[in-house]
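Example 3.2
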Amino acid sequence: MSVLYPIAPSADAALKSPLGRAARERDAGALSHGRVMFARDLTGPAFETREAAAAAWAGRIDVEGAPAIAPEDRWCELMEIAEPGKAAGGQAEPVYEAGHRWPKPKRLLKTAWRLSVSYWRTVDGEPASPAIQQARKARRSEAAETLDAAALRAMASQPLAPVKPQQPLDIGLFEVRLPDAPHIIMPDE
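Structure, written as tokens:
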């Protein structure tokens, strides 16, 4: 049985009141009467330990000692994230050990646990994102220096597009095509 992901505009809505549930994008689009895209977002408070998070979300995730979640309902899981901790102020003071100078370690991040929800996000209100120019082309343009941080983040998050179509693979140095079957490549010893 496959997972039936909720259809909702946000992760909180997916937990509370989804529009429906579907395993595939086309089924989710038909149920929501619009476009959907798969999303995975963090929601809820952050917990310091996994045990505390598991106790808080016991009905949504598998917890030892509790009844198992049905396979079609496994769309939530706990994620370990890094959060800012107490910032150590000022410059690091040196510590001398065995003739070496080592700075004191700064603990700037702490570990926390949050619930990750996988769902079909409805995108009817949002326009389809236009294709953003590839960074390799944008850096050569005159407007490259005026790009803002949001445009740079959008360029960095999009997948790379090929410059030209991939060429067929070459035949190796010790490989030959058979004369009676040129579509077969044989190793030549």
